Amino acid sequence: MSRVVKDAQASDADFIVYSTTFCPYCVAVKRLFDSKGLTYEEFNFDHEPDARYEVVAETGHRTVPVVIDNRGENPMFIGGFDETQRYLR
Fold first, then answer.
1. Average pLDDT by consecutive 10-residue portion of the chain (89 residues)?
2. What is the pTM of this model?
3. CATH code of the domain containing 64
4. Residue 16: which domain range?
5. How does DSSP assign 12-69, residue by residue?
6. What per-residue confidence (pLDDT) applies to 29?
7. How many domains does the chain have?
8. Nearest one of 43, 48, 37 to 75, comparing CA atoms
């Protein structure tokens, strides 16, 4: 089972956010979710460095945040902050 699917299945949150500690776009995407009343679970690559390699291999997305929509039956990769902002319009 993939890292993203495992994390998504273990969470009741609307979105999964993979982030790093000093990332302004990570802060911005969390504020966006808060402003829309959406829940998220955050996994910080600074605390789980091996997770970064797994998530990049699965999504092809090399920057943070990496956002997964966890509201449907299957978790769906959205992208980073810009893609998430467009997705939630």
1. 93 98 97 98 96 96 97 96 98
2. 0.96
3. 3.40.30.10
4. 3-87
5. -SSEEEEE-TT-HHHHHHHHHHHHTT--EEEEETTT-HHHHHHHHHHH---SS-EEEE
6. 98
7. 1
8. 43
